[in-house]
From TrEMBL:
One of its GO terms (molecular function) is galactoside O-acetyltransferase activity. The keyword Repeat applies. Residues 6-60 form the Maltose/galactoside acetyltransferase domain. It comes from Lactobacillus gigeriorum DSM 23908 = CRBIP 24.85. InterPro entries: LacA-like, Mac_dom, Trimer_LpxA-like_sf. This is Acetyltransferase. PANTHER family: ACETYLTRANSFERASE YJL218W-RELATED, GALACTOSIDE O-ACETYLTRANSFERASE. Keywords: Acyltransferase, Repeat, Transferase.
């Protein structure tokens, strides 16, 4: 049976980025990030709830400051006592696993994406 492009993405295989199902997943993540980034900093409980909706999984004590940008979000998994300072970008084409007791400084970019090197 042939895999869908979304199944290929989830398996870490080459896939077509313009596939409608893949594009929809990315659009959903962009919408969630826009919602997250519109939450005032003085509402940390709302920020935490929205970050949990974006990430694939998050353990206890999750703090994420705005601006947050992700490709898909569901490939991001964070452990206990996680803090992301301002302006975190995670291009999570592949899984991003972050352990316990991690603080990420401002203006951090995490990339799991690459482009074919042979055309």
């Amino acid at each position: 049976m042939t895999k869908s492009e979304l199944e290929k993405l989830e398996a870490g295989e080459w896939y077509q980025v313009d596939d409608p199902e893949v594009a929809n997943r990315k659009l959903q993540a962009a919408t969630l990030c826009q919602e997250f980034n519109s939450i005032p900093e003085n509402e940390p409980a709302k920020q935490e709830a929205k970050a949990r909706e974006i990430f694939g999984s998050a353990s206890k004590n999750l703090i994420v400051h705005s601006r947050l940008n992700v490709d898909y979000g569901k490939n991001i998994h964070v452990g206990d006592n996680f803090l992301a300072n301002y302006n975190l970008t995670v291009l999570d084409i592949a899984p991003v696993n972050i352990g316990n007791d991690v603080w990420i400084g401002p203006n951090t970019d995490i990339y799991t994406v690459n482009h074919p090197l042979i055309a």
